[in-house]
Specification:
- The chain has eight helices and five strands, in the order αβαβαβαββαααα.
- The chain has helices at 2-7, 19-25, 45-56, 75-78, 95-105, 108-119, 125-136, 147-163, and strands at 12-17, 34-38, 60-62, 80-85, 88-92.
- Strands 3-2-1-5-4 form a five-stranded mixed beta sheet.
- Helix 3 (45-56) links the parallel strand 2 (34-38) and strand 3.
- Helix 5 (95-105) crosses helix 7 (125-136).
- The two termini are 32 Å apart.
- 36% of the residues are buried.
């Protein structure tokens, strides 16, 4: 964050996604890569990302949940501020959107991450379901997602979170 904030040539926001959020919040010790969303894109950030990848020997990717499913309503408002470096604000991308993307993907680590988000009170099961329902009709625009299967996955995870068996 310090490197990108120092190297950017103007204001903007960078949202941290997935493993980056997990490591910063503390429910995981490591991550393979750092996923980012730029909105609004800080001037010069692509050059800064290229330099950061080389200088810091890290894998930075521009990817977030709304690349794979509908953006949740008001995701900006639920994104949590992390730090400001230079003229760039860094935030955790909406934890509800992260949780839904992880549920849809369904890997073991993803489901552990969702359980950790719930345990740390970053998400609430009822609100997670409401937000899923807010995008459910738009899932038709994402042919890789089977909406009824996704709904079942969300319901199962919410049930497991509620019983502490996720």
């Amino acid at each position: 964050m310090r490197f990108l904030g120092r190297e950017a040539r103007g204001e903007g926001r960078i949202y941290l996604v997935g493993g980056a959020s997990a490591v910063i919040v503390g429910w995981r010790d490591t991550t393979v890569d750092v996923d980012l969303k730029l909105d609004p894109e800080p001037p010069g950030i692509f050059q800064a990302i290229a330099r950061a990848k080389d200088a810091l020997n890290i894998n930075l990717e521009l990817v977030c949940p709304d690349d794979f499913m509908p953006a949740l309503p008001d995701w900006h408002a639920r994104s949590v501020f992390v730090a400001r470096h230079g003229t760039v604000d860094f935030l955790h991308y909406d934890f509800y959107a992260q949780a839904l993307a992880k549920i849809e993907r369904g890997h073991v680590q993803d489901l552990r991450d969702v359980e950790a988000m719930s345990r740390l009170n970053l998400i609430e099961p009822e609100r997670l379901m409401c937000l899923f329902e807010a995008i459910e009709a738009d899932l038709v625009r994402y042919p890789a997602i089977d909406s009824s299967h996704f709904r079942n996955q969300v319901e199962n995870v919410i049930s497991a979170i509620g019983t502490g068996k996720s």
